[in-house]
Amino acid sequence: MIKVFNHWFHRKTIAQVAVDLMLPVLCVILAAVWIGHGGQLGLDKAAFYAVIFALMMIVLNAWLGIYQRVHSRTRAETQARAVLSLYLAIPLAYLVFSMLAVAEVDRAFMLLSGLSALFATLVHRVHSAHSGTGSLLAHRVLVFGVGEEAENVGRVLRKSDPDIQIVGFYPSPTDAEVVVPSQVILSDHMSLSDTAHSLKVDEIIVAVRERRGGALPLRELLECKLSGVKVLDLASYFERALGQIRIDSLRVSWLIFGEGFRQSWRRASIKRLFDIVVASFLLLLTLPVMLVTAMMIVLEDGFPVFYRQERVGLDGRLFKVIKFRSMRNDAESDGLPRWATANDNRVTRVGRFIRKVRIDELPQLYSVLTGDMSLVGPRPERPFFVDQLTRDVPFYAVRHSVKPGVTGWAQVSYHYGSTVDDSIQKLQYDLYYVKNHSLFLDVVILFQTVGVVLTGKGAQ
Description:
Strand order of the largest sheet: 4-3-5-6
Helix content: 40-55%
Largest sheet: 4 strands, parallel
């Protein structure tokens, strides 16, 4: 994993972006050199357009979620996204390379070279999705512990990262119960540091709950770290590997003394300026869509067009959220708050569509301009559910330390959820955002939100 502006990226993601950037540029430049027979026939212009095309392809792939870290995505879905990327790239390549002057470069040949690069990229991506990556990206991990926490780490490792090689589980004297299979437990005849060095371990994950009273071999862990072996605790590992902060491995001391959770006037000012500029642009851009949506709502179910509801915002303050009405007028006629579900029978036909593509969220851009919300942040929840979740879920109130958002890290990372368990899962992504939020992460989330909408996998 590589950290860029407080956000963790997988090594494979960085490699994909590098290939997507270099391969089209390389193929086009080689084609230009071949056409010019080693001369300077449009080489500089061809290179410029190739870079523009490659950057546009990276943006397109980001919108399609190709670079997104989704552990539940199937291999077939990954391959389908790669094929869709190629189909969308063909008209894009034609548009970019048609700008080249015919007198300088054979546009058809340049277009063919660009598409050849795309096809090679597609083959590489589909093959990687089918067979996994090679040993060059293999990462050898030793898990310290053999109890329930260690077994959970091993399961997540195998599911989330095929490049991980778990060399084994080193027993801890504090584990009350052995949960991992005996065949993967390493012998403790050698010390932890000697075992790590002999197995050429890249990383050690400390997966034990009890750490007091000399439970951890601190001297040996320090020796491993000083020799170049990374040492992570459970909370740090899940943050890096899954983009979430797991509640079951979280301690208050980790929140207090760890990095992140920074709030400053400079960060708030930059975020506010970004919100105003982008929200104003999006309101103007989507105004025709909102007018058509309003008419469709009235035609199907009459007035009102908008739905106003009290939500909990920054520091627990209440505000009115504004959305296009997607449910019947009598959706909560008994006055009892209910979770919205994925196939809620209270949703109208128009409402079902606008919720799927998130058109119902567009009026919240007004709340962004007024300062009640931000473009990116944890989704605001109703006071009734906040009281319930704050009482039942540890650290739930931490999400209110930043402004709620129209979209968020939880919305692009987790499927639609309508239960307390789903709220817990989303909270773990919200905590990651609160800890690591930056303008860069906001831009990443906005790009991925477009990808969620384009693929029809909108979340609430």
